[in-house]
Amino acid sequence: MTDAGPLSADEATFLDVVRSGDPARFAVLTERHRRELQVHCYRMLANYDDAQDMTQETFLRAWHKRESFKGNAALRTWLYRIATNACLDFLDKRTPIPSELPGSETAHLQPYPDRMLPEDPQESAVARETIELAFIVAVQYLPPRQRAVFILRDVLGWPASKVAEALEITVAAVTSGLQRARATIREQLPDRRLDWQLPARHELSNDERGVVRSYIDAHQRNDLDGLIALLRDDLRFVMLPDSGVVTRTAKDAVDGWVAGGLFQPGHDDWRGIATTVNRMPAAALYLRTPDAPEYRLFAVAALRIVDGKIAELTGFDATGKPWLGLPTTLPVDEAWVQGTGAEA
């Protein structure tokens, strides 16, 4: 696998490290790529925990295969190739869920904490749209190797020849696989562009921050009418680990939550923290049950906000889990100030 251009200083240094067999220097040079490789693995696997594991597996494989690095490719390219194949091997072993079952594409889905994204998202090809949950879910509709082709070609911008070498397939197979992948993604994301390499906005807007604060406030005041007013009437909603995405009116959605016991006595004492996951506004919701000494993390709601209203809500059951660096409990007697949309 080759990259255009002369051998850079990084590759020359890495070749020297490979020849020396120094594990400490090897770790220093490869560690700088951890965050972007982890995002790449997350796009492949849709699961934060698995992405962490496969990133570590990538570094282990890189160390054991270090003699295969000849300086003909950029170090970053070489690591991406190893990471992609580690993910494909993992997917081959993951227990498959029949595609005809509702929610099979979200079976392994976890949110991704923004604090773990690369510091320079544009430089490391982390466009906002390609880390959003809707995009991650859409990619899971693709077979694993087709998924790899799509991510390497359309997200990372690799030429077909480089993708073919990385996956050990023909350029023709890359081209046909990409065509099929694009058709599937277009079907799953009909209102989104397919040029994922264009510049993307990364900061939340004031409107988005305001909606999250209002969403949290409605919970804390058990204001069902206020909550209904924040939701679009064609709300797309899923509460994981339950399967299936449903589209319902705002009132039907809230009525369903009430019927399930939320906002009823014993489930009506809320606190919330505004945060971000997957480059999306989100609310971490805490619930205190009667006689409990503190509020406990209950759910994380990732929100897609369109024209000042919540168009998509993906809820993650967070009970009993140390999620995303969020505090697991909040004290009852703390003078409460909501978050401002920054990372928790």
TrEMBL record:
Signal peptide: none
Gene3D superfamilies, per database record: 1.10.1740.10, 3.10.450.50, Winged helix-like DNA-binding domain superfamily/Winged helix DNA-binding domain
Domain named RNA polymerase sigma factor 70 region 4 type: residues: 135-184
Pfam families: Sigma70_r2 (PF04542), Sigma70_r4_2 (PF08281)
Top-level taxon: Bacteria
Family: Belongs to the sigma-70 factor family. ECF subfamily.
Protein name, as recorded: RNA polymerase subunit sigma-70
Native source organism of the sequence: Nocardia coubleae
